[in-house]
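thought: fold this chain, then report.
action: predict
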Amino acid sequence: MRLLSTSLKPTSGTAQVKGYDILNEPGKVKKEIGFLSSDTGLYPRLTAFEIVTYFARLSGMQEESIKRRVDEIFEILDMNEFGNQKIDKLSTGMKQKVSIARTMVHDPDVLILDEPTLGLDVITSRSIIDFIKSSKEKGKCVMFSTHVMHEAEKLCDDIAIIHKGRILDVRTLADYRKKTNLNDLDDIFVKIVGE
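observation:
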């Protein structure tokens, strides 16, 4: 995920995002993606609104469209009640919503989301899952990393099973079920890793 986001350079080979090479055109790749990392920090002295607005400007959005887009994202993610609070006063779930909002503010076509619900309560996790579903329904390409198998079952068209840094298999949930004669993705994962 970090390779596709251009945060890391590959030791060999390359990849393309929307036709742009991650090595030769990293600036163009960054404009096309929204990347949410599980360990990306937020500026503690800024408010949620200030951070999302700042990232909108960094992504090159025009000033006249920033407020409209920030208002839209805050409404979708139910962030209005804490929009003017400083980050260091927010809960983990609120901070995660701010991270997602800044990832999405420039309305990218490609989303790379690394563990977006890690450590969140059920209600916040559900709102984030609904947001990801909505993005997918709008035709966005969503790459989603999770250890929570029921989230993968709900969201993914294709599921890659990765173990010890290697992709062991990639297929649809239906194809995994046929291959393993198992229904539950947790059980499927354990069986494939065990092979």
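thought: worth noting. The longest helix spans residues 122-137.
final: tokens above.
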